[in-house]
Specification:
Elements (H helix, E strand, L loop, with lengths): L13 H10 L6 H21 L10 H10 L8 H11 L9 H17 L3 H8 L10 H12 L6 H13 L6 H23 L6 H13 L1
Helix pairs in contact: 1-3, 2-3, 2-7, 3-6, 3-7, 4-5, 5-6, 6-7, 7-9, 8-9, 9-10
Length: 216
């Protein structure tokens, strides 16, 4: 079994998750809301394989649900609105501010203000776009779920999904290897996509990619 500090946090309550579920439609609609519910379902699917490796109590599935439901809560905001929230919460905008990068940061802070999420859920939302070094298992599951959930139709997303499910149950410890390998595939896919579009790459994405490259 793998010890992870995430499980030292008191789990999110079922009542809090239901509150979030009832209110998330005030912030998201259409395909974004569909994606959100798909990420929640995917996170629970991944957890079936990964939680036993981390000796995780099923009560922490409610942390996964909360993070999945809230991870894109600010995704519909304009860049100007994202920057306003950065100013409000003292968030570093980075060298190349964009909605794609900032929404994960603003979502974490707004979710904490509105719903009083715990630090584990906050972290998973905060890093779900770029990842980070030393990610918790909750961080990893939300990151991967966001990339491979089945409404994602990009070829690189499909390949990462296939890789995870083809490798996750090969051996008792394969769940961690499959999860980390999928994170690396996801980061590589994101970087290739940004390069094709001639767009800047957030430095944290590079740091995370190199961290998982060295770890694999």
């Amino acid at each position: 079994m793998i010890k992870n500090e995430f499980f030292t946090f008191p789990a999110t309550s079922p009542e809090k998750v239901e509150e979030i579920r009832l209110k998330i439609g005030d912030f998201l609609s259409g395909s974004r809301l569909e994606h959100t519910f798909s990420v929640e379902k995917e996170a629970l699917s991944i957890a079936k394989y990964v939680f036993p490796v981390y000796n995780a109590d099923e009560s922490h599935l409610f942390d996964l649900r909360a993070a999945a439901l809230l991870h894109d809560i600010t995704k519909g905001l304009s860049l100007a609105e994202q920057l306003e929230l950065c100013e409000k919460y003292g968030i570093d905008k980075g060298e190349f501010p964009s909605c794609a990068i900032l929404h994960s940061k603003t979502a974490a802070y707004l979710s904490r203000e509105l719903f009083g999420i715990n630090d584990a859920v906050f972290s998973a939302i905060l890093c779900h776009t770029t990842g980070k070094e030393n990610m918790s298992v909750l961080d990893k599951i939300i990151f991967v779920s966001d990339y491979i959930e089945p409404t994602r139709k990009y070829e690189e997303c499909k390949k990462a999904r296939d890789y995870f499910y083809e490798n996750v149950s090969k051996s008792p410890e394969s769940a961690k290897e499959a999860l980390d390998g999928t994170i690396l595939m996801s980061l590589d896919g994101t970087i290739r996509s940004l390069l094709r579009k001639n767009q800047p790459i957030d430095v944290q994405t590079i740091i995370t990619r190199n961290y998982f490259y060295k770890s694999n």
